Amino acid sequence: MNDLMIKNIKSLILPKKTEGPLKGKEMDELEIIDDAVVVINGKKIVYAGKDTSDFQAKEFIDAQGMIVSPALVEPHTHVVHGGSREHEMSLKRQGVDYLTILEQGGGILNTVERTREATADDLFNKAAKNITRMIQHGVLAVESKSGYGLDKETELKQLEVSKRLEAVFPIEMRHTFLGPHAVPKGRDSEEFLDEMIALLDDVKVLADFADIFTETGVFSVEQSRKYMEAAREKGFRVKIHADEIDPLGGLELAIEQDAISADHLVAASEAGKKQLADSNTVAVLLPGTTFYLGKNEFADARGMIDQGGAVALATDYNPGSCVTDNLQMIMAIAALKLKMTPNEIWNAVTVNAAQAIDVDRGTLDEGDDANLVIWDAPNHEYIPYHYGVNHAHTVIANGQVIFERPGLKL
User: Fold this and answer.
1) Residue 288 backbone class (left: φ over 0; alpha: ψ -120 to 50; beta: rest)
2) Which of 94, 200, 306, 321 has the fewest Cβ atoms within 10 Å of its own Cβ atom?
3) Are 10 and 65 in contact (CB under 8 A)?
4) Whole-angstrom Cα distance, residue 192 to residue 85?
5) Which fold has domain 73-357?
């Protein structure tokens, strides 16, 4: 006897499990089964497919004609940080660009100061609210970056808090050391980078990946190569914040270094986008950041996909350039501004997002962990269409209901 059956599912969304990320035309392939059921025993999927009488269960959930998918995967966040930066909104409205705000001691440097001042408990309690909202919006796997310490003590504190979040919440997490996220005021970038390279040994027990911000006024391609090579020698898989503002060749560097992901890529070169197809690097696009910063040029998702590359989507939750916990909103922006199809979007927030952070999530095959969402929507196209709201009705983690949307009592 199985533990749980979800019945009366109007449509079941089944991304394809693969060894590597879905690329090019594969991203527009998505199996959708109407009139479906999902059967769960313990923490595992026993069956997900067409309605059948072949299974019995102790408990039932009536999906009431709603749709079901794997839980979403969030592959790029800066969720552990101190403070907030709402005061910078007026500067952005006046047209002050990010690098200017950074030079004035704002941006990352402001958050660094607040994060250094915060206790571990302060950071945990703040991040726990964000993680809770992510779960309520259908996310059950999250990548969490450090990078708001820029010193040994605070970087370790951020990563320790990140590990603590994973121990408390029923989600899968990946932890990324982003020590070279900015250059502290008054410091030489090369000298500081050497300090962050020396810190790799200390963070190895806490971090899964090593990341660097490759951008004008931060770290050059040459410096980033030095860091990534050092990280790889110490056993890290590498990531990169690449080509967000200027086309420096960060995407090409990511491919050269076999990075698991290259993120942002708004200004990626045509050569880099073409090379993406011949790599297993996932382009993690963050259209919410472009939207929040009020810019007109979005990452060229169509160019990447149409040339055979792999794309994932993420919020880039952070206190300065994209303050949202709602990955569903990013799905809508991807449809409107990145010109991605609904199938591509669903694959980008499930299987490809999982590939970008090396988690076994995003599918509902037999034997998979039972992490799924019941969505209050008539079909899979509706969620990116009806934007800015939470369509998640029920979230199930490891076979247990952990969130169910309450109804109005009139």
Assistant:
1) alpha
2) 94
3) yes
4) 25
5) TIM Barrel (3.20.20)
**What percentage of the chain reaches a pLDDT higher than 70?**
100
- Cα 335 to chain centroid distance, Å, stands at 17
User: For 115-123, what is the mean pLDDT?
Assistant: 98
Q: What is the pTM of this model?
A: 0.97
242 alpha-carbon distance from chain centroid: 15
The pLDDT confidence band at residue 185, using thresholds 50, 70 and 90, is confident
How far, in Å, CA of 330 to CA of 349, rounded? 9
Would you report the helix, strand and coil content of the chain in percent, each value rounded to 5? 35, 25, 40
pLDDT, mean of residues 324-330: 98
CATH of 2-70+363-404, one of 1.10.8.60, 2.40.160.20, 2.30.40.10, 3.40.605.10: 2.30.40.10
Question: 3-class DSSP state for residue 196?
Answer: helix
Alpha carbon separation from 269 to 57, 76, 193, 272, 299 (Å, rounded): 53, 22, 26, 5, 11
Q: Give the residue extent of every domain in the chain.
A: 2-70+363-404, 73-357
Q: Which residues are within 8 A (CB) of 87 and not within 5 positions of it... i.e. 6 or more apart?
A: none
